[in-house]
Automatic annotation (TrEMBL):
Name this polypeptide is given: Uncharacterized protein
Superkingdom of the source species: Bacteria
Native source organism of the sequence: Pseudomonas extremaustralis
Length: 113
């Protein structure tokens, strides 16, 4: 794949579309005004047309991207009501209950018979 070499020097635009590209690429209004002053009078209408078309495409692209953006959720999430924790007996309590049950079976009158 060969790409076109970058121009080594600044070339004066030869077509209205090239002027429009330069004006659109200019950052601030002062730079755009300087470039507008360099546009030949017979090309100004064409350059303005190219800039309007490019702005229209940019606006269309922005609108399309906004449509594709997910909707903003304005509803806050609902939280579950507070429920106090249920007491679960620990291992020591369960072990004591089992030991008490075993002692009760050992001391029951049925075992001693």
């Amino acid at each position: 794949m060969h790409s076109a070499p970058a121009p080594s020097k600044v070339v004066r635009p030869r077509w209205p579309r090239q002027f429009a590209q330069l004006i659109l690429a200019a950052g601030d209004d002062a730079a755009r005004a300087v470039l507008w002053a360099k546009v030949p009078a017979d090309w100004r209408e064409l350059v303005q047309l190219h800039i309007a078309q490019a702005d229209g495409r940019t606006e269309q692209h922005v609108r399309q991207q906004e449509r594709l953006r997910p909707a903003v959720r304005t509803v806050t999430p609902t939280f579950a009501e507070y429920r106090p924790p249920v007491h679960v007996p620990g291992n020591a309590v369960v072990a004591a209950q089992h030991l008490a049950a075993l002692r009760a079976t050992i001391h029951s009158p049925r075992v001693s018979q």
